[in-house]
Amino acid sequence: MVCPRCVEAVRSLLEQAGYHPTEVTLGHAQLDKDTPADPAAVAPILREAGFDVLMGRAEQMTEQIKAALAEYLEHLRTARMPLTTSAFLTDRFAATYSHLSKVFSRTANLTIEKYLIRLKIEQVKEMLSYNEMTLSEIADQMRYSSGQHLSNQFRQVTGRSVSEFRRDLMPKRLSLDQLA
């Protein structure tokens, strides 16, 4: 689950199936003690609606890291003195960055750094589609060292230049769950 609408959709699906969720948050659903859940019965209901069911701790942690990285992007954009990615994640999870990185890489088949770059580029695509800021302004807001650095990274990730992207009337965007 990567957004509040997903949380509500999962809550609704569980209730329609006769379960009584006490808490549904990003990447987690807790059912009341009186309605035992059989994961094998719940999984098809959620999968049919397009949700993945994560049973292992590593998968759950990876999804929590992804959600935290989305929050980190907002922190990057708004904080006067933003934390490093590693400091942000270790504060959030009370675990070493090394441990978080190993779990994430094994589960997502992608490093935290590469996932964060993809996430940033998707945010940049959104900003470009509004056509309200220059590339330098976007680079500054996203904490790139320069517009050229952003432009190079954009091309590496998308295979297209920023100019090509801007000329496209219907640019292709990825949903958050497609990034890894």
From TrEMBL:
Residues spanning the membrane: none
UniProt entry tagged with the keyword Transcription: yes
InterPro entries given in the database record: Homeodomain-like_sf, HTH_AraC
Keywords: DNA-binding, Transcription, Transcription regulation
Domain HTH araC/xylS-type, first and last residues per copy: 63-168
A Pfam family this chain is assigned to: HTH_18
Phosphoprotein listed as a keyword: no
Protein name as it appears in the record: Helix-turn-helix transcriptional regulator
